[in-house]
Amino acid sequence: MLLDFNRMPSQTWSEFKGGAGDTVVRMYKDVSNRIMFMKLEPGSSIDYHRHEDSSEIIYVMQGTATGTYDGVEEIIEPGMCGYCPAGHSHGIENKGDEDLVFFSVVSEKQANQTL
Predict the structure, then answer these.
(1) Could you tell me whether strands 33-40 and 81-84 are parallel, antiparallel, or unpaired per DSSP bridges?
(2) pTM (2 decimals)?
(3) What is the CA radius of gyration of the chain?
(4) What does the longest C-alpha to C-alpha distance in the chain come to?
(5) What is the DSSP string of the chain?
(6) In 41-63, which positions are buried (b, 16+ CB within 10 angstroms) versus exposed (e)?
(7) What is the pLDDT of residue 110?
(8) At 7, phi and psi to the nearest 5?
(9) Tag placement on the chain: N or C end, fewer CB within 10 Å?
(10) CA terminus-to-terminus distance, the chain
(11) 10-residue block means of pLDDT along the chain (115 residues)?
């Protein structure tokens, strides 16, 4: 299945999860995942929050992210991936001078899921 984020309408979430500024997102969602192409302008953030029943993968494509994972601050640069497993907490901030562009996949809780 092909997902063309260039053709998806964008949404703007102000102060997403209690963060600063706007998060611009193009998203595909089904019962298993939310697959998102996202942008944070300089000074914007997605506040620190807990993933109770889902995990999230963040792959940075442009800019430099300051990620906080379980209270530990880390720098995520293009080509790097941040991972927040279920039961853990994280947040992301753009402290740089250019847009932070990243790809995010959030799993949805599945009852009786097997591998």
Answers:
(1) unpaired
(2) 0.89
(3) 14
(4) 45
(5) ----GGGSPPEEEETGGG-SSEEEEEEEE-SSEEEEEEEE-TT-EEEEEEESS--EEEEEEES-EEEEETTEEEEE-TT-EEEE-TTEEEEEE--SSS-EEEEEEEE---TT---
(6) beebbbebeebeebbbbbebeeb
(7) 56
(8) -100, -5
(9) C
(10) 21
(11) 96 95 96 96 96 95 97 97 95 96 88 46
Query: Token pair for residue 25?
Result: 């997102």
Cα distance between residue 104 and residue 27, in whole Å: 9
Q: What is the distance between the alpha carbons of residues 49 and 56, in angstroms, rounded to a whole number? A: 11
Edge-first strand listing for the sheet containing 81-84:
11-14, 22-29, 33-40, 100-107, 56-62, 81-84
Q: Give φ, ψ of 71 to 5 degrees.
A: 85, -5
